[in-house]
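Subject: Probable guanine deaminase

B.,
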Amino acid sequence: MPSNSPLIEPKASSSIGYTLYYGTFVHTPTLEELEICFNTLVGVTSDGEIDYIHKNYKPEEHDYMTAVHRNRNRHFDFIDYSQDPTKFFVPGFIDTHIHASQFPNVGIGLDCPLLDWLNDYTFPLENQFTDSNEKKLQFAKNVYSKVINKTLTSGTTCASYFTTIDPQTTNLFAELLLEHGQRGFVGKVCMDHNDTYHDYEESFEDCVHSMNSIINHLDKLNPSDDTLVKPIITPRFAPVCSRKMLNWLGKLSKTHSLPIQTHISENTKEIELVRDMFPDCEDYATVYDKHNLLSSSTILAHAIHLTKKERKMISKKECSISHCPTSNTFISSGEAPVKQYLYQDKINVSLGTDVSGGFDSSILAVIKHSILVSHHLAMKTGRQGDKLSIIDALYMATQGGAKAIGMPDVLGSFEVGKKFDVQLIDLSSKDSIVDTFEWQLPLEEEANQRKKSKQMQDLLGKWIFSGDDRNCVKVWCNGRLVVNKMHYQRDDRWVMVEKDF
Ligand SMILES: O=c1[nH]c(=O)c2nc[nH]c2[nH]1
Ligand SMILES: [Zn+2]
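Prediction pasted inline below.
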């Protein structure tokens, strides 16, 4: 266990029995649908699977032991947050675009446009992961432990990561994910044609060798009963990949049934470059399509400046877009018309922090930024319909993310058969900067359910716009408690809770 992550629960202390969670559960099972379930009992098996949901559970009327007995479990935990209206469960966040290797550059490179930003800040940093063996492993362990700790303690239970071109440190990254208990897709960056920064590129043959080594290593790494880390095919973006490499990666995805992630149409200069380099392709999306890289398991990051034809193709191929508004603002790339993608083009859209183009590794922050950027877009276009709602953004951060990573029936919402990848939000946590007033709280005794639901929706607004990772007090991944920042007040002092209750 890395010593710099005191908030991460060590594996040994994870709960292994049957667990019943009781309290308020909030989720967006489908686009446009927000479900707020008060007094809900959720049963989770020792494998981390939700096998029982009882909405509106009344202890005086119902017997929770039926759930326990159904599983022939004599030992179980009962975790009750129903008495505190400032606490609620939400699905763990799914970050569908993040560069783990770029974490040290967070906050650096403001307003440097993409291609300069890559050469001046990003390639030199990523190149440090290709140093001599001992040096690079130490460097990688430090950076990768920190980024996993940071995202996990901010409520990200699963992420689709980019690492670097280096295979050894990429394998180390996958091991660290498992050690911390975060679900993850691990993408070794593939790039054999870096014309502007030759120090940081690989040969086609090296790429083939590295990808095979990573696929084999990750195959052996997962626990026997579950796949928590998985490789993802990652051509960095068209300008740094030869046609031979793009072709091979398309085939590799098919032969190993592996998902694909890449960048598309982030910056106008980048689009011009692609046009010059691939004159036989009508547009950027066609470059990927020609090399068999567009399918329902492809995540396309940014997708800000797509043409109508590209949108149609992306929709038809059922690719997902990872919207990264924090990054798009920080390096001035533009405003993606996300509402149109979701509702008119019927494209699945998820959210990405895009560290370090994005300066915040918390998806909660990206939810906030996605809404603000959409308001700016609406002011520019004069179309109110361009504005994203809280429900849209929460959906993209959870169920939309689950769809993007090919796990719509496993993650993203509370449903029997899904995995318990969950965060507990506490608006009155120690150090919380959220202010709530008594009349704003959905109290147990409130009989008017509509009023109670409206109060809960207002609390979601408070969480998203004035909260942060300090309000994410517990995180479970695959049913296992992996983060516990829970404190309680004793004699006017905040004391860390050792156990769940
Ligand atoms: O935001 C981005 N970050 C990157 O590292 C990158 N590489 C290509 N295109 C990119 N865009
Ligand atoms: Zn990126």
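The pocket of xanthine (ligand 1) is lined by residues 99, 114, 118, 122, 236-237, 263, 266, 327, 354, 357 (CB under 6 Å).

T.
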